[in-house]
Amino acid sequence: MTAVSSEMRAVQVPDLRDFTLPELTEWMTGLGEPPYRAGQIFRWLWRRQVGEFREMTDLPMTCRQVLEAHARVSTVAVVAIQSSQDGTHKLLLELPDGERIEAVLIPEARRLTACISSQVGCALGCRFCLTATMGLHRNLRPAEIAGQLVALGKTLGSGNHITHIVLMGMGEPLANYTATEKALRILIAREGLAFSPRRITVSTVGLVPGIRGLARSGLGVSLAVSLTATTDELRDRLVPINRRYPLRELLQACRDFPLPPRRRMTFEYVLMAGINDGSEDAHRLVKLLKGIRCKVNLIPLNEAPEIPFRRPSRQQVEAFQKILERAGTIATIRESRGEDISAACGMLATAERPLDSVCSVP
Ligand code: SAH
User: Are residues 208 and 273 in the same domain?
Assistant: First the structure.
């Protein structure tokens, strides 16, 4: 097939990895196939992670031919892996149209967390985030969000498997709501990747309609909100979308978010020297979060030449944490991982970044 005709085909026929199981079932029935075929195909795509119809050996030949003619299966390709001294791996991934995103694997004592992206770039322009400097190239499709798990999984040695997923890579998941929700359904589906929803965390800058949508979806995934400021005046400056969804509205949506028993939602708070790290900020934060079952994750700013802020001293970070804890608010300091390879929070950006120290994947 020539490049042009394969591109046309890509536009015309659906990518089966974009479908949730109910959607695939409906689509297969439309082709005159029995509904249970959808379950078989879904298992091939996500559990056995096979993308070639000819390898789906329990499907009748005629069914495989129908699929060849009417569908495609996309994959997310690993282009390069950079490994940090602390065991974190940053993966450069390529999408079918050549756009590139990043994902991070973070090993801890008894867990292996995959940090995945939801958009190529981001439109929200938070002043302290490097991804923001890329602008938004495009949204990811469900196949590309969930497909990152397949790509990451294939780089792991036997015996290792991903235990937790955080949507904390590039992009704002709730600005790409429909695709994100579908991808979550694929990740959770028993016939799919079968992740417990509690082990999946969606992190948002605070898009209120998205938080309410996620609440209504009943998916039961964990929520993290990147708060980072305690007054609208400051938050308007650091996180421009605050002008649309100010603190009062945002925190009300958080209060209304359904939490399973004994679970807490997370508030991320990026600490910047002289900007939001004072004792008055800490006291205001305690007040704002009163009545919300939550914990605060303090993230000392990761610095970059493009970012006009500085990281506070360790002493300042710990003093901030102490004030929260004395007031009964659980607060942890996120130890920065993968800093030496720019894999840390807010550092993911693929535009024109040199890959000199990268070991390429054969
Ligand atoms: N858009 C979503 C998902 C991205 S998560 C969100 O904002 O939550 C990325 C996390 O890294 C967010 O908590 C963000 O506040 C944080 N972050 C962004 N820039 C950072 C930086 N320079 N240093 C430390 N954390 C940063």
Answer: yes
52: domain CATH number is: 1.10.150.530
> Residues 47-53: contacts with CB within 8 Å, 24+ apart?
47/191, 47/192, 47/193, 47/194, 49/150, 49/153, 49/154, 51/17, 51/75
Domain count, the chain: 2
- Tell how far CA 199 is from the center of its chain: 12
Chain centroid to Cα 295, Å, comes to 20
For residue range 202-229, list pLDDT tens digits in order. 999 999 999 999 999 999 999 999 999 9
Which residue among 33, 102, 172, 181 is the active-site one? 102
**Weakest mean pLDDT among 236-245, 256-265, 348-357:** 348-357
Return d(Cα 52, Cα 44) in angstroms, integer. 9
| pLDDT tens, position by position, 58-72 | 999 999 999 999 999
Long-range contacts (CB closer than 8 Å, 24 or more residues apart) made by 317-322: 317/271, 317/277, 319/279, 320/271, 320/277, 320/279, 320/281, 320/282
Q: Which residues contact 359 (CB under 8 A, 6 or more apart)?
A: 80, 81, 82, 83
Same domain, 12 and 115: no
Is residue 10 predicted with pLDDT exceeding 70? no
Where is pLDDT greater, at 122 or 348?
122
Known catalytic membership, residue 102: yes
Please report whether residue 354 resides in a domain: no
Q: What CA–CA distance (Å, rounded) separates 205 from 228?
A: 9
Residue 345 is a catalytic residue: yes
- Are 219 and 88 part of one and the same domain? yes
Q: Which entry of 63, 122, 129, 345 is annotated as an active-site residue?
A: 345
Q: Which domain holds residue 59?
A: 3-70
Given a cut of 50, whether residue 300 has pLDDT beyond it is yes
Taking CA atoms only, the protein residue closest to ligand 1 atom 9 is: 168
Ligand 1 centroid to Cα of residue 129, in Å, is 6
User: Who lines ligand 1 at CB under 6 A?
Assistant: 128-129, 168, 172, 203-205, 226, 228, 268, 270, 299, 301-302, 307, 345-346
Alpha carbon distance 20, 17 (integer Å): 8
Does one domain contain both 42 and 87?
Answer: no
